[in-house]
Amino acid sequence: MQIRKALHSADNRIAQISEIFGVVAVGVLVCMMMLTVTDVCLRYFFNRPIMASKEITEYMMVIVGFLGFAWCALKGMHIKVNLVVGRFSERTQAIIDIINHIIVIGLCVIFASQAFSESLIVKELGRGSDITGIPNYPFYLVVFFGFFLLLIVMIPILIESIKKAREK
Amino acid sequence: MSSELIGGIGLVILVILVFMRIWIGAAMALVGFIGYGLIVGFDYALIFAGQLPYSTIAFYPITAIPLFVLMGAVISNAGVSGDLYNTAHKWIGRLRGGLAMATVGACAAFSAVCGSSTATAATMGKVALPEMKRLDYDDKLATGSVAAGGTMGILIPPSMGFILYGILVDQSIGRLFMAGIIPGITEAAFYVGAIWIVTRFNPKLGPRGPKFSLKEKIFSLKNTWAMLALFVLVMGGIYTGVFTPTEAGALGAFLAIVISLVGRKLNWTNFRGSIVETAQVTAMIVLMIVGAFMLMRFLAVSRLPTLLSDFVVGLPVANIWILVAIIVMYIILGCFLDIYASIILTLPIIFPVILALDFNPIWFGVIMVRVMEIGLITPPMGMNVFILSSVTDVPVGTIFRGIIPFLIADFLHVALLVAVPAVSLFLPNTM
């Protein structure tokens, strides 16, 4: 009973965290829009563009794209084809989902760990953007964090599928 | 084992995984990673897995995705569809089948600022169907016109289909947008033609609507001119080279917010819903793009696309028949797969064949996106049909029957696009 309670509370906490980072992604998205609009207006009306607008926008895109992964998984928004599996019994569906979730977790481990290693390499090489010199490695860490958060979110989803498979 | 064989086995496994209900992005990433590892070595595959997600997404053209999604989300949440429909209703509602024609016209106008087929069908369904019901329109014609009209969302720019196509095959998104304009207009004309023919044979299906004075007609434009001006500004900016597609997307999203605020159509709840939807859709697409690039690298080292291209080019049939076969494949695929998934999954294999056959990539992009639209209204998936059924309570079977005249129009329109490439290429060629 206590384990169940602890799992439930962990579930909620994970959902909250993924949502918080989703909100960060939303905030960065609005900033991205405003930055680009300001750049266009300054260039068109005053002939004074924001020189680093393009590279800052690219960095922002990394934040918007990867921080939303886990949130998207929680909301069940990642695209999948339900045409065949949807016709199977609920137990079979749950078993297939277990396999799928394990595959996703495995991929998250690979991508997260490799993005982390790459961030260390990029930091050591001192790679940064051309105009502002903003270092690249924090954004590799964002990639790492996006996959890591997805991994954390997938664990309770996997446990839920296992429970379903055992109940049916 | 030869690398081509590994490529072929990889594709078979990919199809199995996709139909096993694994996320499509994850399936492509998995097959891409393992396939690349088997051919080049897993040490290189791991390095690649570390570099690819960042290098793929920190790429300026990709930033157009969230900005155009935001523009469409704001517009669809702000209830602009009602104004567009009212305007079209007042101008052509008097004709026989005029409300269905007005629905198609409003769908085309909404698509010009929205970019999502499902959003177009859902919002127009809520607005247009009650009015058509009130005037005793046949359910089949009414729902068919909304479901088919909604499909234009992905062809008339700004279109997410074109953005994804442009990113994956390295074609100009601006040129693709321009290439979609005339086919979008002609598609609307074909649908209007279908309604005209159907109601001519059976006038009871779509009775005439009420008559409006010229003053009322002109007055109705006051709520819609801003959205049409937004479309002209965004597309005009891209056409004249004043903006990049990313800048046009940002400006479009910003102006959509301003216009909706000024028109008191946007409140905090709508705005919050729009940006949350945008962030989630972006994350979903980003995962698929990362998976697609992983898969493309694997296929490139497997040399399977080259082998396939050589094989197809060597076939003793005219190129046009190969194109027809590809179109049929996309129609079938569109019946089972989501439109984004179809584009992302198939391009790594199909596009080299298209280049080998010496087809214009912009023209093919238009045809591919146009053909995929058909999948949105054909069984068993027919996404627009299911969405429309859920927002209107009209049975799915009734809507599918109502679709038939529009499907015929679809096939004729695709034939036109194939036979006359200038319909797609005229505008981009003048850029």
Which word captures the global form of chain B? globular
Give the low-confidence spans of chain B. Answer: none
Low-confidence stretches of chain A: none
> Which word captures the global form of chain A?
elongated
H/E series of chain B: HHHHHHHHHHHHHHHHHHHHH
Percentage of residues assigned to helices of chain A:
over 70%
From the alpha-carbon coordinates, what is the Rg of chain A to the nearest angstrom? 20 Å
How far the N terminus sits from the C terminus of chain B, by CA atoms, comes to: 48 Å
Structural class of chain B: mainly alpha
- DSSP strand count of chain B: 0
Bin the strand percentage of chain B.
Answer: under 5%
Figure out the total of helices of chain A: 5
> What series of H and E elements makes up the topology of chain A?
HHHHH
- Show the largest interface: A-B, 59 and 57 residues
Give the terminus-to-terminus CA distance of chain A.
20 Å
Number of strands of chain A: 0
- Biggest sheet character of chain A: none
Structural class of chain A: mainly alpha
> What is the CA-based Rg of chain B, rounded?
22 Å
The percent range for strand residues of chain A is under 5%
